[in-house]
Amino acid sequence: MHTPPALEEATMSNVTVHDIIARARGGSSAMGTAPYPVGFRASVTSFLVLEIVLGLSSNLTVLAVYGMKTELVSSVSSVVTVNLHVLDVLVCACCMPLSVAVALLSLGADAPVVCCFHEACVSFASVATAANVLAITLDRYDISVRPPTVC
Length: 151
Fold this sequence. Notes:
Layout: H1 7-10, H2 17-24, H3 38-68, H4 76-104, H5 111-145
């Protein structure tokens, strides 16, 4: 005959592995603590800040050069290249600070919202970069198949 499972086995629980590890270490639930060790967070943060500074400065410099010389933005290739630099500036200004926030902060109840927004930004940047690279590739192919005629 079949016997029903014990009441404890039949109830569902929202306990995660992270909670079990935190209790085993003598702490409370892990929601209030930072999920990564301090050394890892410091190194990731320093690399991300360096990347933000270098990315913003180099891309803004290129955009300033393109802005000062209007003859540089006369071709399709240049417009797509400028678009790629604008996208890189947006990544450095929006996505990377969110990465720093996710790495540094203990987000608690706001973690799903921040993580979903961060993933949405990264996905948008990836798709937009791929579209720009495709446009550059098609433009280069068009130039190689039909070279410009000089009269």
